[in-house]
Description:
3 helices, mainly alpha, two-stranded antiparallel sheet
Amino acid sequence: MxxxxxxxxxxxxxxxxxxxxxxxxxxxxxxxxxxxTPDCPQWTIMQIDWEAGSRRIKEQDAWAKDVFPAAHxxxxxxxxxxxxxxxAQPFVAALTELVQAQANTTGFVVLHEWVEIxxxxxxxxxxxxNDVVE
Length: 134
């Protein structure tokens, strides 16, 4: 088998497996690895946990995609109801724009978009030319 790693690793307390083409090798922390036989209880539990985690992520993603539009609409309505002269207005505007940016993407809002939005609502304070220290 090409790419087969034949390096030693930690022994599994259940199956005591070592490097072999039929065994599975799992990294348990760099550079430590542990080998498992196909019928090892620890290996089976790891696979079950991975599948359960994957299923949970898919369920959470489906739920979020279903609920997000209504939650986003409630945010927009609450932001529109805020008086424009309140101290919280820049925060409300930035949050609303960030959530809209998230709604416009299928992944995550990337850092440069966050910075552009925050710079728009919270511009850097320029030095005051009249504030001269002697």
